[in-house]
Amino acid sequence: MHYQTESWGSYIPATTMTVGGDPLERIERLASESAVVIFSMSTCCMCHAIKRLFCGMGVNPTVHELDEDPIRGKDMEKALMRLLGNSSTAAVLPVVFIGGKLVGSMDRVMASHISGTLVPLLKDAGALWL
């Protein structure tokens, strides 16, 4: 597994997640371990854009690349789809948690950024100090 910590923060492949167990419980546990957590696919352009947004703001998100584990990663993606209330087959990633709370996918994060509510969320979670 490759870890790329220089540019995105902490990369954790899905293979480091415990075997078995409920994917929703795993998501909840992983989402609460860092101030900003992104569930991503390494080949997804929207995932890349959201990681760039946070890094450009000075935030070091923990990134879980679900395509690093094709078996458990798919289960995690399905669980994230259920969390978002998305029943379509459209791509659901990236999914962002700030302070252990679900913010949502790309559209919700960008809407928060544009409306000015993203920075206060990041400050409250301890991801930004200024």
From TrEMBL:
It comes from the Eukaryota. Residues 36-103 form the Glutaredoxin domain. InterPro entries: GlrX-like_pln_2, Glutaredoxin, Thioredoxin-like_sf. Gene3D superfamilies: Glutaredoxin (3.40.30.10). GO terms for cellular component: cytoplasm. It is found in: Cytoplasm. Keywords: Cytoplasm, Redox-active center. Belongs to the glutaredoxin family. CC-type subfamily. This is Glutaredoxin domain-containing protein. It comes from Ziziphus jujuba var. spinosa.
